[in-house]
Amino acid sequence: MLLIGLFISLAAGAAAQTAAKIKLQNPGFGKITLTGNKTRVTVNLSKDVAGCAFAAAAVKKAFKDCAAGAAEFQLIDATVKNNQTYLLISSEAMGNCNVCGRCGASEAFALIWLKLDRNLQVLDKKSVPIDFCRLDIELVSDILDFDEETQNETLRLKFADDILAFDFEKTIFADRTENNSYEFSHFEYNRKTPEAGFIIKTEKRERSSVPER
After folding, report:
1. For 149-177, what is each residue's pLDDT tens digit?
2. 25: which of 33, 38, 149, 160 fits an S-S bond (Cβ 3.0–4.6 Å)?
């Protein structure tokens, strides 16, 4: 009876987690629109984006052709577990709202985790910049693809055994009397335990781990 009860418990746990049928759209202004189960909501992620979420009207007027476009979002993973939906989303934006300014010509990337209720309302969220010139953050793992035709970079994120993992690094610039140091970070997201969000382990290093490309 104990074995039967254990089997039923495990089966129920497995059934409680499924892939979520969520559609993500980019309406602009640092927002996303989520559609699923006949429910449609708009979520503001402008504060979670690395780089320029969108250029305000005053910025567009001042910089004209140098004004950045709005950030774009992609759905990386969507899981339903115990009546809650967990999303992993990537954001891509220009590094500066003034693309002619510092870091403006480079793309900035972040990953955003959302915890939603059954009505797709946000219960919790967190984000992390993983490649952002203005914060001196650079990817260590080779997960960026460069399109020669468009001159744009895109993230190439793949799960292995339900785990998404990669490394990035932040340069800590020292004063004239010291050498630079580096914060090496390992990112990991397990789609079997989406409620845990992503986990980042950081250690300080004396030398950069970013390979020459």
Report:
1. 777 889 999 999 999 999 999 999 987 66
2. 33
| 0.85 exceeded by pTM | yes
CA-to-CA distance for 203 and 207, rounded, in angstroms? 12
Alpha helices per DSSP H over the chain: 2-15, 57-63
Is residue 139 assigned to a domain?
yes
User: Domain containing 189: what range?
Assistant: 18-205
Residues with Cβ within 8 Å of residue 96, at least 6 apart in sequence: 51, 52, 68, 102, 103, 104, 134
Instruction: Say if 174 falls within a structural domain.
Output: yes
Q: Are 84 and 21 in contact (CB under 8 A)?
A: no
Q: How many domains does the chain have?
A: 1
Measuring CA to CA, how many Å separate 60 from each of 130, 169, 200? Answer: 27, 32, 36
Whether the CB-CB separation of 45 and 72 falls below 8 Å is answered with: no
Retrieve residue 157's tokens. 């994120």
